[in-house]
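Incident review: delayed structure delivery

Summary: a single-chain prediction request sat in the queue longer than the usual turnaround. Root cause was a stuck worker, restarted by the on-call engineer. No data loss occurred. The affected request and its eventual output are reproduced below so the record is complete for anyone auditing the incident later.

Affected input:
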Amino acid sequence: MATNSSVRAVLITGATGGIGKATAITLADKGFHVYAGVRTATPELDVSGITQIRVDVTDPDSIAAAVDEVAKRQDGAGLYALINNAGVLVQGPVELVPAAELRRQFQVNVGGPVQMIQGFLPLLRAGGGRIINISAASARVSLPFLGPIAASKAALESFSDALRVELTPWGIPVSVIQPGAMRTEIFAKSGAAAQEARAEADPRTVALYEQQLIALDKVMAAQRFAPVDIAVTVIVKAVESRAPKPYYTAGSDARQAVWLSRLSPRLRDRLIARALDVSGIQAAH
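Output delivered after worker restart:
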């Protein structure tokens, strides 16, 4: 069934998560037709203005099927925006990150958006569309024990910078959103996965990081997470703007990351170690 060609259509991946679901519903309320990219059907998204599209961003066949479905529904009208929001968070000391988890981090956070862009660019050209990639504050400042997520988001931003110039002839803007820590399930899932990985690792190696991880757990327990509405407001701004900016931050800690990124590496390292309460920890043997 084709959608109304006069209604601007937006596709957002990771629509079952906190930021994705809230963004999809908000954009639908604002009059956009939203294609909500999901891996499994979500009852909360069964509302007017939203069409759920099954897509696994790590599966090329799944992406190709999603492209075909959206193209048929749009019936030549194209796509106004592609929001690459699907992502995972892998954490832990680099020495203890399983190879499979590292591959998953990059497959979802980097390969996924790139393959989605490759597949949907014809529809974006047809619709005079734009690309919005959801990054993270950690892309600016990589924190200890968050190296995998930080590296994946930095890679996504590098692709975004290249695309922004490559797509200039077609007038397709590319924006990056850098949210800080938001109140979503991703941190709990990541923490559980990290604990499982440590349980399967060599206990002698795990013991080397025990004091640092205890200190980090205390800091994380006191972490204040911002409501997802802060990120949603910024994403909607990037969708609606006539001249979207290359970069947006969402949240006070994201703005703090911008400030930290401008410091010398040695000073930045000292400040981060002090903030995480790991500066005085001696090496374990």
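Verification: The chain is about 50% helix and 10% strand.
Action items: add queue-age alerting; document worker restart procedure.
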